[in-house]
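Comment thread on ticket #2218

A.B. wrote:
> Attaching the input chain for the structure job we discussed in standup.
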Amino acid sequence: MKELRASDVYQSFIRLKWAPVEENGFPITGYLLRYAHSEDMQDPTEATPSVAARLAMLRRPEALKPTYRGMLRPEVSECKNYSISVRGTFLHFSVGEDLPKQRAASCPPKIEHFLPSVDDGVSSKAIEDSASTTVSESEQKVSQTSESDKTWESDKTGGESERPEKENTCIGDRRRVRKKRKCQGACNGAEAEGCYSCQRKINELLISAAAQDRDILLEVVSRNVSRMNGVNLATAFHRLARAEPSEARDLCHSRTFEAMLEAALGRAARELQRKDGVLPANCCTIIAWSCARLGAFDQQLFGALARVAAPELSQCQSFEITNMLWAFTQLHKTQPAMAAQLEPELVSLLDGAKKVFAQRGPRELKSQVLLSALVTVATLPNLCRHSETWLFATAGWELLKRWAKLSQENKVQVGVAIHHSRSKGGHFFHTVAEPMISRCPELAQLHHGLARR
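C.D. wrote:
> Ran it. Output below, let me know if you need it in another format.
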């Protein structure tokens, strides 16, 4: 145990008020104490809001990032002639040597009791084993905004909101804790788009309906399409994309699906104009992938989705980026005239993908993502862009490094991509693809076998 005197502590200690702050999706409650030592804390701006250090930057509280500063409710207490011992993240105090050290505060004993039980995310199935949960930025800011507001609102009915009090057992005073006004599900239109409770309820309905029947899902969408935000629309599109190919034609011509396309276009136009997070970039990739899988290509919608997603691809997972490129590949295969009109948007997506993958590093990308990028670029027309050549070459050489670990099916896909790259012109094939063929005999054998067909 490390013993510290009050003189070693830069400014006493911090007691954080009770606040249901979320840490990586886990609600954190309780009282946390943390000492601020002049030698231990070199740069408070580098601190993250973790359970072990939620944080007490008394040296320079104004230097904290605004996101973290809003989470802190510090109250400084004087410490004179106290022995302070540190155990993990807790402080223990004693006056003299005769008194036992008392625990001053603690975290919730079992954080799993506070885990959310509702899956309100959207998972993309283009890569089955890499499903991800999608949460809009507006949802992530709900808890921070409500906790940083120190004023009490009046209820719409005219009465005052409840003001429950929680006793502070450390120093005996009582702290007021604001209770969030719960939405009654009566929000309509644009009002519902900004209501986290409504968004969550709609997603619950969509997921539950999708597990039962497609017609039930369409009925739920029909009732709520005007109230759905980007996350809700992405959920609905993704669940409908699971339909059998024989059902896709009837589905795409239904009134409800057409209303979904109009709603998605409206959200994309609003996002381009206001940048308010109503349609996050990863939701754009899911909607584009779902429409491509169903064969529902709308030039205005695909153009708007690409313009929203391209500058924000760094916010997407790697497989979501390749899913977006795959959607444009399908557009090129089935609607080449429309794809030609959207060439500027495709170029911006390729440039953005190259930038993101270069930052993340090819070694960090999964083989399935690399394979998807390789096949996608090989299938697209030659756009004579550096990003196009870079994506193909980087994905190809990294896959060759992992060749011994690839399945036979994946090796065949690499050979197919190399073979398709001939369509991009002799210069591209000779300068980019042929060096790979000469380096790997097995790949050369696959390529020659495909060329003889």
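A.B. wrote:
> Thanks. Noting for the ticket: Residues 19 and 426 are 64 Å apart (CA to CA).
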